[in-house]
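Re: that chain you flagged

S.,

Sorry for the slow reply, it's been a week of failed gels. I finally had a moment to sit down with the sequence you sent. For the record, here it is as I used it:
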Amino acid sequence: MKQVLVELFVLLLTILLFLIGMTQFHQPGKSRSSAPQNIHYDVYLSQTIIENAYKMY
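Prediction finished late last night. Pasting the structure tokens below so you have them in one place:
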């Protein structure tokens, strides 16, 4: 049961980070050249969170 809760939490966090990264494309004030770097950072951050969550349990 605890494993299922951890996986759901990690999945929700990953989706949230992905959506935050995608909103970078829709901000007219920012240049498009900075958007891919933000998305790569979000993917790296979500992978790090997943790895840390699995180390905890």
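What I noticed first: The chain has a mean pLDDT of 75.

Talk soon,
D.
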